[in-house]
C-alpha cells in the first residue's frame, strides 16, 4: 500500500521535478504548496479527486512543457487558497480501497 507522510519531507523542498504518475493517488498532499522550486509535477493516470479535476484543468495544461511551471504555481496558489478557508483534508494522498485490500 502507498501512503504519503503528512509531514513535509525536508529533502524534497528543493525538488524541481516530481512525478506521481500511474499511482492510485486520490488527494495531492498539501505540502506540495511548499515546493517553491517545483517546475514539473506529473500526476497523470491517478484517480485524483482533490484538487477536483475542474481545478486541475483551470490551472492550465499540466502536459504543456513550455508552461508546466506556470501550471504548478497556479495549482499551488489554488491549494493555498482552499486550505486558507479552514477546510481540513486528509493528507495521506491515498484513500484506502477495501476491495483491493481484501484481495491480497
Identify the notable features of this structure and list them briefly:
104 residues; mainly alpha; two-stranded parallel sheet; disordered C terminus
Set down the secondary structure blueprint:
Elements: E1 17-19, E2 40-42, H1 53-58, H2 68-84, H3 98-103
Parallel strand pairs: 1-2
Description:
The protein is mainly alpha-helical. The protein has one domain (13-103). It has three helices and two strands, in the order E-E-H-H-H. The protein has a two-stranded parallel ribbon with strand order 1-2. It is globular and about 30 Å long. It starts with 16 loop residues before the first strand and ends with a helix.
Q: So what's the overall shape? A: globular
Number of helices: 3
Strand order of the largest sheet: 1-2
Query: What is the arithmetic mean of pLDDT?
Result: 78
First-to-last CA distance: 11 Å
**Series of secondary-structure elements, N-terminal to C-terminal:** EEHHH
Q: How much helical structure, as a percent, in the residues?
A: 25-40%
Number of domains: 1
- Counting DSSP E segments of at least 2 residues, the number of strands comes to 2
| Poorly predicted segments | 92-104
As a percent range, the share of strand residues is: 5-15%
- What structural category characterises the helix and strand content? mainly alpha
Task: Tell me the quaternary state.
Answer: single chain
Rg, rounded, reads 14 Å
Amino acid at each position: 500500500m502507498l501512503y504519503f507522510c503528512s509531514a513535509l519531507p525536508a529533502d524534497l523542498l528543493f525538488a524541481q521535478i516530481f512525478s506521481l504518475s500511474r499511482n492510485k493517488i486520490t488527494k495531492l498532499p498539501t505540502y506540495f504548496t511548499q515546493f517553491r522550486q517545483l517546475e514539473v509535477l506529473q500526476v497523470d493516470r491517478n484517480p485524483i479527486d482533490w484538487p477536483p479535476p475542474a481545478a486541475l484543468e483551470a490551472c492550465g495544461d499540466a502536459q504543456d512543457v513550455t508552461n508546466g511551471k506556470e501550471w504548478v504555481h497556479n495549482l499551488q496558489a489554488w491549494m493555498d487558497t482552499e486550505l486558507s478557508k479552514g477546510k481540513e483534508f486528509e493528507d495521506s494522498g491515498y484513500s484506502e480501497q477495501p476491495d483491493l485490500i481484501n484481495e491480497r
